[in-house]
Structures are given as C-alpha cells and as structure tokens.
Here is the input.
Amino acid sequence: MKLAVVGVTGLVGQVMRKVLEERKFPITEFLPVASARSVGKTVDFCGEKHTIISMEEAVSRKPDIAIFSAGGSVSLAWAPKFAEVGTTVVDNSSAWRMDPTKKLIVPEVNASALTQEDKIIANPNCSTIQLVVALKPLHEKYGIDRLVISTYQSVTGTGAKAVKQYELEKSGIVPSAEESAYPHPIFANCLPHCDIFLDNGYTKEEMKLVHETRKILGDDGLRITATAVRVPVQGGHSESVNIRFKTPFDLQELRATLEATSGVVVQDDPANNAYPMPRYAHDKDEVFVGRLRRDESEDNALNMFVVSDNLRKGAATNAVQVAEYLNEKGWLTS
Here is the structure.
C-alpha cells in the first residue's frame, strides 16, 4: 500500500499522520508531499524520518491512494493528474464537493455510494461532517423538514495563521495586519464571519452547510438555514441545531436511536452538568451529541448540541475512514 499525504506540513496534514499511525492503516510506502519550499525537509511517521517530495515526483511514484489537504486550487490542478495514473484521491478541500460527478462522503452516512471507479472522492467541510453523522439516523426515522443551525467554530478551522493570531492576542501582543487571519481580534471575541461573504448575505461556510448537507443526505428539498461564528477556541467545533421533523417523535426513543449510531456519543445529563464541549472532544474521533430537548415553540421539533474535533473527525479521521472503507473493499491495490 503506497500512500501519499499532500499538504503534509499543514495543520490537517500533521493530524493526518497521527491518525494514520493510531489506526494502523496498512502502509508499506509513505509519501509526504508539500509545497516547493518544504521539499527536501523531513517529517516523522511511524518512528521514521521521511523526506518530503514534490507533486511531480509523487505522481510519478503512482501511489495507491493520495489524501489531499492542500487547498482547493492545488486539488483542482493535481487531483486529476493523480487519478490519471490510477491513484484514488480523497480530497479535503472544497474543490470537488459540489461537483455532481464526485461523491461527497462521510463513511457512517453514505460510504455505500462509493464504487471502485470513483478516483476523486470529496471529504466534506468539517462542520458538515459532524452535523450529518448526528442527523442521518434521525432523518431516516422521522424525516427532517427544516434545520436551523448555529455554529461555534474553532480558530484551527481557519489554519495555522489564525492559531498564531489567537496566541499573540492571548499573550497581550497586537498582531500586525500580515500576522492576522481575521479582520478583528479573535481572543475574547466572537466573529459572526466564517469564510467570505456571498451576494445573498450569507458566508461561504454557512452555504456549505446548506448545500453539502443536502447532497450527503440525498435530499435536495431539505430546508436549511445557518449562521457560522468563529470563537476563541483552539480545537473543536460546536453546533446548536434546531430540527423540525415531518413526523412526531418520542424523545427517549430518539435518544436511544442516537446512542445506537456508530460514531456518536450521547452526553445528555444536564442534572450532572454532562453535555458536549469542545474541551473534551479534543483529540477524539467521535461526534458528541447532547442537550436533547423538545422545541416547545414548534410541533415535532428538537434542539440539540453537537460537538466534534474539527481537525480529526472534521478532516483527517474522516478521510482516513474513507481510505479504510476503500481498502476493505479491495479497491486500492491490484
């Protein structure tokens, strides 16, 4: 099994190496790939030093699978070149997510949609992944009519520059414009501004939640609205989700349904202050769900709180789980 990680030095790339090690993915040859400025440097993987190679060399080595986390423009330019030499690409950028010819996959939700012919597979947005893991069993059982989502997203979702801005501000240092990932301070602040604003007044992040959720759940008519907020948290996205169902539900039955769902951990004991929090989701692969309660203002409606580590399940772990599924099917090696 020859595996390449493209964008190996980035935040997600670093976590990708850790997840691959932890889950003991069966790699016989590891190919770390990064931008030209990193070529020739080394990274650690499974107790050994590996030299970073260029995109061109990685393509020439024809890996069985390449996991991309290097940005949309890189993926658009290079994923097809890897696919042409027979490599299966799992891409973590937004480049291919809404391409109707590409599958958008969360293994617990829709891995069965994959075939051996899928050579470029899209990894959803981090906030979408944790959301659909929790929604899928409820949609199947009760039918979702409408979703109202508010997110509270970690600075790690923006990248290393945002983490550096947060750390500088936390230390009492005002970062320069060049050192700032955001147009305002993030420490001791909340920004209702994730990604760029679009013509409809929503941000790109908010519309990702709308479009990606519909695609993954296979329901183009699902009514969804979202507000995405960046919060001064290092690691872990949180989501307040209001769901209106098409049919009545029993709250205890709904809770049991979530408890029986693969990848979900229900933390819902408010009497003992037990509910999902990013602090305790850090470095874990599960999606944590709690604060389950009826919306008393609306028939057949529920409120819940969903938390997950955005660099793990929201990115690296989901991609590795896709690779594991492909490997179990015997589709990665001849």
Summary: Residues 2-123+315-328 form a domain with the Rossmann fold fold (CATH 3.40.50.720). The CA atoms of residues 12 and 311 lie 6 Å apart. The chain has ten helices and 14 strands. The first helix runs from residue 11 to 22.
